[in-house]
């Protein structure tokens, strides 16, 4: 069997040849199979006929732009999409997410950050079947209830580990306190939602600051693991 058939297939739609080649170079080194095209019409045609795992989609392109390409794509495919843009205006990000994008990254970007975001999107769409999740230098194993950071074991009680596991397995997803209570403490838990806040505070104290990810409070909503 061709080894390429077992690789995660990434398709890039971007009119900048240099950007496509650079991304393809890094992704190829990291074990991905990569195709790239320079306009939305061609990219959509390819996506209708071929199976890919994730799409990297530029916004500013000749012909139909990235937003229009994404709108058309969502009529026939649920492939995860990361928008690429040289502009970082909030409205561009909002428009991309409203059209059905899964993530958004602004050029220029660190290739390793892009790879991390691709893996995060794929984890959300296709969660791992095992009970161990690795996120950069953090590893959470719900099977034997261990957490390691930079290879060192972090002492945590089971509920903190379950809470951290729930957040880490779907990076960038915002969980409400009720979501976390139901998933970690169970549907029949009648305690105070501030229980979540207390556990989050303890987890933060034990894990400290990290250059690649952060346990973020989304004010008025809940919490998420943010990947940089």
Rg over C-alpha atoms, rounded to the nearest angstrom: 19 Å
Stretches where pLDDT is under 50 for at least 5 consecutive residues are: none
Structural class: alpha/beta
Largest sheet: 5 strands, parallel
What is the percent of helical residues?
25-40%
CA(first)-CA(last) distance: 36 Å
Side by side, the strands of the main sheet go 2-1-3-4-5
Note the run of SSEs as H and E. EHEHEHEHEHEEEEHEHHEE
List the quaternary state of the chains. single chain
Strand content of the residues, in percent? Answer: 15-25%
Give the helix tally.
Answer: 8
Per the principal axes of the C-alpha atoms, what is the gross shape? elongated
Structural description of this entry:
- The chain is α/β, with parallel strands linked by helices and about 230 residues long.
- It contains eight helices and twelve strands.
- The strands form three sheets. A five-stranded parallel sheet has the order 2-1-3-4-5, with helices on both faces. The protein has a four-stranded antiparallel sheet with strand order 6-7-8-9, covered by helices on one side.
- Helix 2 runs parallel beside helix 3 (about 65-75), helix 6 crosses helix 7 (about 175-185) and helix 6 packs across helix 8 (about 195-205).
């Amino acid at each position: 069997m061709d080894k390429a058939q077992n690789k995660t297939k990434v398709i890039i739609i971007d009119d900048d040849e240099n950007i496509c080649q650079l991304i393809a170079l890094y992704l190829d080194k990291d074990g991905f199979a990569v195709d790239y095209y320079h306009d939305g019409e061609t990219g959509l045609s390819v996506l209708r006929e071929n199976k890919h795992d994730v799409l990297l989609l530029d916004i500013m392109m000749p012909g139909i732009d990235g937003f229009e390409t994404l709108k058309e794509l969502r009529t026939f495919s649920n492939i995860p999409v990361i928008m690429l843009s040289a502009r970082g205006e909030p409205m561009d990000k909002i428009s991309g997410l409203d059209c059905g994008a899964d993530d958004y990254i602004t050029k220029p970007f660190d290739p390793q950050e892009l790879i991390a975001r691709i893996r995060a999107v794929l984890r959300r769409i296709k969660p791992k079947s095992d009970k161990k999740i690795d996120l950069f230098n953090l590893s959470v194993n719900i099977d034997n209830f261990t957490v390691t950071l930079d290879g060192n074991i972090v002492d945590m009680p089971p509920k903190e580990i379950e809470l951290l596991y729930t957040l880490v397995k779907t990076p960038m997803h915002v969980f409400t306190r009720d979501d976390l209570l139901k998933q970690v403490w169970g549907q029949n838990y009648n305690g105070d939602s501030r229980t979540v806040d207390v556990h989050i505070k303890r987890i933060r104290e034990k894990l400290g600051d990290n250059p690649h990810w952060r346990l973020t409070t989304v004010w008025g909503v809940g919490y998420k693991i943010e990947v940089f």
